[in-house]
Amino acid sequence: MSNDILRFATAGSVDDGKSTLIGRLLFDSKSIFEDQLDAVERTSVARGEEQTNLALLTDGLRAEREQGITIDVAYRYFATPKRTFIIADTPGHIQYTRNMVTGASTSDLAIILVDARKGLQEQSRRHAFLTTLLQVPHLVLAVNKMDLVDYSQDRFEEIKAEFTDFAAKLDARDLTFVPISALHGDNVVSRSENMPWYSGPSLLHHLENVHIASDRNLIDARFPVQYVIRPHKSADPELHDYRGYAGQLAGGVLKPGDEVVHLPSGLGTRIAKVLTADGEVAEAYSPMSVTLLLEDEIDISRGDMICRPHNTPAATQDLEAMVCWMTDARKLTPRSKLLIKHTTRTAKVMVKDLRYRLDVNTLHRDEQADHLALNEIGRVRLRATQPLFVDEYVKNRQTGGFILIDESTNATVGAGMVVKTD
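Predicted structure:
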């Protein structure tokens, strides 16, 4: 079994068949237990349905979410001999934009479902925009319910052409189109005999083989320090002066002997050792969690950054970012005071101004807007009380992303992507 993990998000309008698609992937890849399948079959019979309703495999979580229970995104896991998968099943309605942002922010790929009968809907366009805003590297448009349009090639090509025109306005890097019927399994796990005109891979084949290794930034070394390890008492004389810096590599490759620089001090040193839970390693790369031992003693603490001498992030207190506002308890307005959590550093921040509010359906910029409300997205200028070590989000999703926190309640109220630094 490969350790390669693909994280993907599913999105689409209500009733476009997301639940059925996920159920079909779980069922056909034999990733559900017999008792789960028995329960689904019993419920399907009780409802008078002619065949097993695979959507019921995920609808339990969806029902909980509709009751107001805080399962923002339903996560599902399955594996094939080639790859392990984590599915973020994101809700389709506009009122759940923040949940879509949450699910897609860590995804390598997004599947947007479109009903072949209805074609592109407002929500299809909105989800496509959000996935490109969040720099999800791979996008799949799955044209579902092809069985209800008699597996028409013309209908598929029509939707494909319409979406291609819309995607030209977006930053869509890798776009794939697959005609499917989640209900009957056409082109989901196996190629369909009902669509001989389609020469591409099945959806699962594409998920198994899409190349994601090069999506990670392996050029710009970024190591935000999460914890300083200092054993207080030890009989081992080697551990007497032990000082390790633990964290998750947010970009690049680091190995023993490499010259590095510490931010904010600017002091240089070399890496002595790279340790993991399994012992010493010859190199570390994103997104490994490691402990670094350095050759020189430098005053380093949580929130600091270790990187290469001639390749450092911007150390700045002024940010310009796209922010998705995630609470109805308050609005984001100029002069708002919040906390910002960026990598492992937390600082106080003030909203300098709101450049514009973006209509995610039309891409219209409202430059007269004076606030952001729940689920709204806008371009904002922020001023932090201490320097943050940031890259633009298009360059590094880890060092370019942050969350905003309400100081009084400690609730996450916004998520942001750095557009530029001043």
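Summary: The radius of gyration is 24 Å.
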